[in-house]
Amino acid sequence: MSLAANGSAPAGRKQQMRGFVGFANLPNQWHRRSVRKGFNFTAMVVGESGLGKSTLVNTLFNHKLYPKKEVPAPHMERPKTVAIESISADIEENGVRLKLTVVDTPGFADFVNNDESWKPIVDNIESRFDAYLEQENRVNRAKLTDNRVHACLYFIQPSGHALRPIDIEFMRRLHQKVNLIPVIAKSDTMTDEEIHLFKQRILADIAHHNIQIFYAPSYDVEDDETLAENEEIVRKIPFAVVGSDQQVDTIDGRRVRGRAYPWGVIEVDNEEHCDFVKLRQMLIRSHMEELKEHTHNVLYEKYRSEKLVAMGVTQDHSVFKEVNPAAKMAEERALHDAKLAKMENEMKLVFQQKVAEKEAKLKQSEEELYARHREMREALDKQRLELEDKKRRLESGRPLTPEKGGYAQGSKKKGFSLRN
Amino acid sequence: MDAQQTTPLSQYVGFDSITRQIESKLLKRGFQFNVMVVGQTGLGKSTLVNTLFASHLIESKGRLEAHESPRSTTEIHPVSHLVVENGVKLRLNVIDTPGYGDQVNNENCWDPIIKYIKDQHSAYLRKELTAMRDRYITDTRIHCCLFFINPTGHGLRPIDVTVMKKLADVVNVVPVIAKSDSLTLDERDLFKERIRAEMQYHDIRIYPFDSDEYEEEERELNERIRSLIPFAVVGSERNVVVDGKQVRGRKNRYGVINVENENHCEFVYLRNFLTRTHLQDLIETTALRHYEAFRSRQLLALKESSSKQQAAQQAQQQQAQQA
């Protein structure tokens, strides 16, 4: 028994098997486990009002997820911002359970001013990523619920010309965060030729702006049939779809899902009439798991790394080196010692600085004191001199004050002064 | 001429030939009709106009190359053609408005359109008021505005309501559901009802208007037209083969649409309405209603501003006298 060649296996030796072991049964075990757990899938639909988003979702899953749209009467208030509404349903087919969630974005591109209409949508997708990130970082990770958006169906108006500015802007903002699947809505209004030219122009626009849409990837290991199918699917991208959740009668009497016009009946499930079958195949039958994987491995990882780097968590590359515990301890001790020495030095410096400050202050006050002392001494000396002067005068019987002496005599002796 | 006694004639005079005299004069002069198309890109405006007048009048101005940048404002593109049918000359002006409603932020995208319409009225007024005016003033006023509605099936979008209101004040508006081959008959009827309800709620007065002058059959005709509005149309410049005949239509993957088949779309009604029954009325209503309203507003404003100027001058003089 030879092993199937797996290109990504680590460099081990391919052994030849000598008997049947039984791990070929692994896929079956996986299958049973998955069926037991059930699957979940979250899709988002974005587009102008009236492009048939709800109808297409109902048609895709053959389940009336969205009831008939209630158009508000003229006098009722219209919402002023893009809303995010999500509907869930548990559907089952052949024993396989699918929890389907569809996120609708009513109001997108419906206003006069649609600047930033993508913001609520981008915020919603990122908040779902954040919720998953938070779950991953919890202590108890037993229950991980995956609410991330796995696919975003973007509805393009069937104008026949090219993408509109709002289409391009939206796709540019979201193609790195979600698997973008553009679809041409209400394509029953276009002829074959118009559809062909329109698709070409859309793809040219997408390439021109470097927008990454989801292309059904194919792997070399798969069989030819699958590869051929994949190629057919990729050729039809973007899908020109028509949706209908009602049954009509065709001219030759069959009862099919479709739309009845006076000039003919368009059948939704007929590949000649529209690309609905291919869309369903890619979205559900062949690439649903692909979409989930791509969301987890590529889009979510990108978001996660960007977010962690932005939070300041740096990648610690030393984690990957081989660690010797003794050497590590010595290293740590050395570090510790160095730290202590540094602290000591710092403290010394601070101490010296403080001492110098205090000295300077004391010197200053000393000088002030001296100055005062001198001043007072001088004042005292002056006073003493004055006092001695007065004493001498008193002793020699002279008048204390010369002018007073003159008047005390009664008359002013002219030319004859008793003053010395 | 009310209930006046008609005086009997004793002999044939021959003044009944005045109608033929007028006709021959008018035939020599030719007629002028200006129509404007307003709507989002990709709704088939150019195709419909070309289908209506059965000739290639305007080019589609959609963005077709990836490196072309989309238009950043609404541009006004008038194109003039002369068409002749059975000796009747019609000078046709088609005014296209590419870029309307195409940007992410469409605030005031209708301003260039309203301005253009008012400019035409104002140009006519100026020519009328000059002392030496031309014998026949060339009429560039917009006689009809075809407003294209997206076939969503839900109702009018906020931008449609705003613009239709503004347009209905200055021009005859004829709303049209574009690319109506995306609606089944039931969806179409429901859609029309909703649109009519919204137009009534927002008080948007669309052509045709009622007037006391109209006679019984004219009023009936108008009623019928009003019950059809908005017209659900499909346009096509190419021919397809239906029952061995070449007709204008579209060939899909699942059927062939005949543009001239009344069961398929209402193109025939629109064409008859515009060209066969109401062409003259559209021109007249523009002159009698919209132009008159514009004219009276302008002249009143002129009088007011001149009287204000006079009052200001008088006040100045008085002040000068007092000082």
Automatic annotation (TrEMBL), chain A:
The UniProt record lists the keyword Cell division: yes
Any one annotated GO CC term: cell cortex
Q: Which PROSITE patterns match?
A: G_SEPTIN
Name the UniProt key words of this record, in alphabetical order: Cell cycle, Cell division, GTP-binding, Nucleotide-binding
Highest taxon of source: Eukaryota
Report domain Septin-type G positions. Answer: 37-310
Give start-end positions of Basic residues composition bias.
411-420
Instruction: Report any one BP term from Gene Ontology.
Output: cell division
Transmembrane domains' residue ranges: none
Q: Which SUPFAM superfamilies match?
A: P-loop containing nucleoside triphosphate hydrolases
Stretches the record annotates as Disordered: 381-420
Name the InterPro entries on file. Answer: G_SEPTIN_dom, P-loop_NTPase, Septin
Q: Name one GO molecular function term.
A: GTP binding
The keyword Cell cycle is annotated on this UniProt entry: yes
Q: Where is the composition biased (Basic and acidic residues)?
A: 381-396
Family of the protein in this entry: Belongs to the TRAFAC class TrmE-Era-EngA-EngB-Septin-like GTPase superfamily. Septin GTPase family.
Q: What is this protein called?
A: Putative cell division control protein CDC3
TrEMBL record, chain B:
Q: Which domain of life is it from?
A: Eukaryota
Q: Which UniProt keywords apply?
A: Cell cycle, Cell division, GTP-binding, Nucleotide-binding
Q: Does the keyword DNA-binding apply?
A: no
GO biological process terms, semicolon-separated: cell division; septin ring assembly; sporulation
A single Gene Ontology molecular function, please?
GTP binding
A Pfam family cross-referenced in the UniProt record is: Septin
**Limits of the Septin-type G domain:** 29-301
**Which terms in the GO cellular component ontology are assigned?**
cleavage apparatus septin structure
State the protein's name.
Putative CDC10-septin
Q: Which InterPro entries match?
A: G_SEPTIN_dom, P-loop_NTPase, Septin
Q: Which family does it belong to?
A: Belongs to the TRAFAC class TrmE-Era-EngA-EngB-Septin-like GTPase superfamily. Septin GTPase family.
